[in-house]
Amino acid sequence: MNTSEQLFARAQELMPGGVNSPVRAFRSVGGTPFFTQRAKGARLTTADGAELIDFVCTWGPAIHGHNDPDVRNAIAGALDNGTSFGTPNPYEVEMAELLTELVPSVEKIRMCNSGTEATMSAIRLARGYTGRDKIVKFAGCYHGHVDSLLVKAGSGALTLGNPDSAGIPASFAAETIVLDYNDPHALRETFAAQGDQIAAIIVEPYPANCGLILPDVGFLQLLRELCTQHQSVLIFDEVMTGFRVAAGGVQALVGITPDLTAMGKIIGGGLPVGAFGGRTEIMDQLAPLGPVYQAGTLSGNPLAMAAGIASLKKLKSLWPYDRLEKLGQTIRHALLGAAKEKGLPLQVPQVGSMYAVFFAEQPVRNYGDATSSETQHFNQLFKYALDHGVYLPPSAYETCFISTAHEGSEIEQAAEVLAAGILAM
Ligand code: KE4
């Protein structure tokens, strides 16, 4: 069987960087990325036979861990009927009913095939609905590789040090206003000056693509107030946080109603799915009803819908959020305890099954704070953890995820490894 080294050598001949998504290349943490042979529950088995407790969870979708039997059975059942029809199918209706039930702000929904498609389409819809061009986003937030949003972006763009991608026409970037998250003054000034030109604010309500950042009290409410006041569209990008921090996402936790919500990851149960939805008045601007065009050959694909439906139904039956919060706190306390003992400044923002690790004196409130943290310390911890059977995201600018498949024993084991990794620094 090919080792990761052998596979990576071949991959690099055929795919840029040997990967199909940049952050997988381990460029910021160094070394050869391992190739995964199979995955089950909370664990990955690499092409080299190593078994790893996984805190990436395929970047969020695997809320029930890998190869979940209920999700597998749902896919197998759908497969008996075929893989893609290109016509409406019953699964789409069931998915739409689930999503609009779980996220009440979403009155109507449109399925697509990735989080990027979801945010790209939501932006186009907001522009079409308002007749305006400008978009407000926040530095460090990543909304997928959308031309107009790859401006001061997070995730892999930030990891590789090019948050402003090449290939984006200046005319596109000129329509994107980038502000600092948690900076109410800049936000008020911007809307005072050009509120009538702003089609939308798009925000990760809890930014999780430059590590994990939490809002100052009142910040998200201010977004809502300014969008209402200036008739701009408030878009919550809950591709990552949706169904993860709560069944209804951040908007359920903070009690704020966005006009549109972008979704992805968990709703596909590991298969390619995105979605965007919101107020009927806005959504009905979409083709075939309205003038805003959006489409997709595989949108509402029956296999992907079946996987997502099973994943969401399992969340409804397990309602795992209290348990995931406890598991997240176990990791957080272990990390902070070890850092205190070592005398290392450490911040571990954590919400439920999401946590991040910043080697920083002060809490990280924005992009500047995140990029000023000691990423070399993170890289050391990443390597130690990987050598001891624990897989953290290969970048300080990502967020860790816990699944319902993580047993208490695996969390305890991982907490011990991470604490030891800090003490070994
Ligand atoms: P996708 O197009 O990758 O399905 O979703 C884009 C996206 C949109 N919005 C948010 C908040 C996201 O986090 C993402 C994608 N997340 C990254 C991980 N931080 C995907 C990992 C990757 O790019 O390989």
Walkthrough of the structure:
By secondary structure, this protein is of the alpha/beta class. It folds into 2 domains: 3-63 and 320-423, Aspartate Aminotransferase, domain 1 (Alpha-Beta Complex); 69-317, 3-Layer(aba) Sandwich (Aspartate Aminotransferase, domain 2), CATH 3.40.640. Helix content is 39%, strand content 13%. The protein is built from 15 helices and 14 strands. It has helices at 4-14, 69-79, 90-102, 115-130, 155-159, 170-173, 184-194, 219-230, 250-254, 280-283, 302-318, 321-342, 367-371, 375-387, 408-423, and strands spanning 36-40, 43-46, 51-54, 108-112, 134-138, 176-179, 198-203, 233-237, 260-264, 274-278, 350-351, 354-355, 390-391, 400-401. The strands form 3 sheets. It has a 7-stranded mixed beta sheet with strand order 4-10-9-8-7-5-6, sandwiched between helices. Helix 2 runs antiparallel to helix 11 (302-318), helix 3 (90-102) runs parallel beside helix 11 and helix 7 (184-194) runs parallel beside helix 8 (219-230). It is globular and about 55 Å long. Ligand KE4 binds at residues 21, 23, 59, 114-116, 119, 142-144, 155-156, 204, 209, 237, 239-240, 264, 274, 398.
